[in-house]
Amino acid sequence: MRLSTKQKKVKILEIFASSFGLSVDSACKIVDISRNTFYNWLKEDQKFKETYEALGESILDLAEASLIKQIQEKNTTATIFYLKTKGKKRGYIEQENVLRVNTNLQEMETKSDEELEAILNRKV
Hints:
Blueprint: H1 5-19, H2 24-31, H3 35-44, H4 46-72, H5 76-86, H6 105-109, H7 113-121
Helix pairs in contact: 1-2, 1-4, 3-4, 4-5
Protein name: Homeodomain phBC6A51-type domain-containing protein
């Protein structure tokens, strides 16, 4: 029995709800539609799009709850991750060292290997 478009939309949303964000490609194969069809549904059917996005938010809520639980269990990695992502305003960021190199290629081509190595090893 072939499913109607409406039935396929319901089915694919059920798959996403029960699989915690199975890939679009895998879900489309199960429902026997193309990825293009899925993305067209997102563009053309506001209710379908809103339901799909709400499922994504639910999965994100679940992941955040799991992260908080890990922090409560004194998981150092989870704590560090949380502080790096949510604690930036309080200074919990990693310093990024950026090497600034003269990008004039013609000038760089005239330098010896030793000079290039010295540039790369120079402290910023």
